[in-house]
Every structure is written in structure tokens, then in C-alpha cells.
Write a structure and sequence with these properties.
single chain, about 425 residues, alpha/beta, eight-stranded mixed beta sheet, seven-stranded parallel beta sheet, 17 helices, about 15% strand
Amino acid sequence: MPDFKVADLDLAPEGRKLIEWAEAHMPVLMRIRERFAREKPLEGLKVGCCLHVTKETAVLVRTLMAGGADVALCGSNPLSTNDAVAAALVEDGVRVFAWRGQSKDDYYWCIRQVLSHGPRLVHDDGADLIVTLHEERRDLLRGVISGFEETTTGVIRLKAMERDGVLAFPIIAVNEARTKRLFDNRYGTGQSVVDGLMRATNVLLAGKTVVVCGYGWCGRGIAMRARGLGAHVIVCEVDPVKALEAVMDGYQVMPLREAAKVGDIFITATGCEKVIRREHMELMKDGAILANAGHFNVEIWLPDLEELAVRKERVRPCVDAYVLPDGRKLYLLGEGRLVNLVCADGHPPDVMDMSFANQALCAEYAVKHEGELEPRVYLVPEEVDMAVARLKLEALGVRIDELTPEQKAYLESWRLGT
């Protein structure tokens, strides 16, 4: 097995500067690293990571290594790797298999290299590493202590594996931690998706009609940030409760076939396939912009777009114009992949601080409880979630109240009424 494969090791100095910038904005993870360096909770353990290779991920990887882990890393998206960060991590001693612009074959080759490392802990983003492990390397399953999943999409896949009775080891759904989904998914996605959209196109959002497909925590964040920049926001949903919530939040809600006729910018954030498809593309205005914030590039259905177009041309670094038979142009950002990571830097380190703190502490928790957890999907332990929140508040210089003994007794009692 090769030790690494990255684009260019000469980029390492640039990568180190990026990582140092992220470390300066991730105080919670840095505090955890200090403790890990003293206590070595992951001493001697091989760890496999399939994560976006960004400066923030590098801070997590360095933290796992400080805890004694031997880490192998591949990218969780063919277009999200920062090649400078990948090079810097190789110099840190990480087995990195990642470069920007991979083919599908390259992508899965890199996953297989990480699996060949024989990981006992598996950190995933989208569940491709865990699924490939179950499908191709069943010989390694018995040695895995636990896996950790970062995304909504990945958690959905892993819960399906649990329902089908094929999940072979416990998974902690990091995505479901309150200190992850309420902040990373809402504020991180909201800011970074709009950042990617603006960097790719340089369009003015004020006055535009932005159609947000999906009103989960990511969709909420995108809608909130788009409205904050002066856009008129339409939400499309299939869940009646989420649709009602969007109405109560002040957004217009309608079927996508209606929104397709009036939207200027369309952003998908559903975790489902074929959200924007031919029937919608045929109704869109000339110049409509299509962007995806979901994990996989299946939400904007590219086969329909390719089939409809008579010509395709790259008009900006991250923008492809699809010319339709009647002369209309639809602009696709980032090849339909994660717009915030393909066209920008992804989530700010300040919010990834909490997400990756959960990853690190959940790894420690799984090791402490090795053999006690069944092969199913678990929520992040409450003590981990609360510890991350407290550490973040401390880092921000924010103090809060505490319950008195009497208040605790009141909340725990069923006898005290009116």
C-alpha cells in the first residue's frame, strides 16, 4: 500500500498556513487537543477518515494524532480537496489519498487505500467509506470499534443499513448532535452556500428570487442568509410540517413546478435524488442559476440537463452554461456538487470547531465503551454534546446561569403541581 497520493507536495507550506488560520478559529478543538496530547486516549489505534480535505479537517486530524491515533485520510468528494492542505498533512505523517478533480475510479481507489490501513475507528462524511467497508472488506469488520458520521445524507444511509440488518458495528451519528446540526447545518451551510454562489457568479442577490428546495436545518440556513441579502425566497418542500414552518417563518411556499417559472436562483438541500429534473428545467427562465448544497451530485438531475442541452460551455471557473434548443441558458455551478466546497472554502472554522469537537470526543467515548455498544446508529451522548457547548461558550467568553438545587428537584419531580 502506498503511503500517500496527493497533487503536489510542494504546496505544503501554503497548506500549513491555512491550517494555522483554522486552528486560530477553532478553540474548542484545540483545547481537546491539549488534553488528548496529555492523556493519549487513542494510543496505538488506526483511524480511517473519509472527510472533505480542508483546513478544518486538518485540525481534527492533528487532534486525533495528538491523542495517539495513526490516521489515514481520503476525500469525501472528488472536488472538495484543498491540495495544499493535503500536502501539509502528508508532511505531518498522515497517509493522505486525496486530490482535487478525481474521477469516480480515483475516488474509490482512495477509499480502498484508507481501508487497507485496517482502521479500528472510522470517521465518515456521506457513508461511502463505511458502505465500501461493508461491501468490499468484510474481513476488516470485526476489528472496527465504531464509526462516526458527519452528514444528514450519511446518517440516512446508515439507518437504512441498520433497518436492513447489515450494519456490522456501532455508529455515532455526529450529525444529530445539537452542537452540530443547529449550528453547522444552519449557520455554516447558510453562510458557505451563499459564499460559494457569490464567488462563482458575482451576482447580486438583492431583488433576486431564490428557490430553496428542502427546509431542513441546511435549507433553513440558506433561506435565512439569502433573505438577509435582500432576496425574495421561495421554499419547496414535500414534508407538510417543514412546509408549514417555512410559511410561519415568512417564506412563500409552493410546488417546484410553479417556482421553476419565477426563480432566478435554485438551491437544492434535500439529500434526495432528481429534485430538479427535466420537467422543471423546461419551465425555467433564461439565465436561471442552479446550485446544489446536498452531499451527492444527484439533486439536480444532470442526465436530464445534458439531454436537454444542445451545447455546453464553461463560462467561469465554476460555472457551466447549458444552452437549450430555444436559446435559453441554464447555469450549473460546481458541476452539481457541493457548491460551498467546490466554489468556496466550505464552512467557516468557527462552526466546524463544534462539529469536529464532537468527532474527537465521540472517538474517545467509543474507545472507552468498546464492546458495550451494539451495531446500530446512536445519538451523540448527551454529556459530549453539552461538553462541546460549554467549551464553545467559554471560548466566546460567555457565561450562563445554573439551576439551583431546588430548581433541579422541581424539574425532576412529578408531585409538584399548581
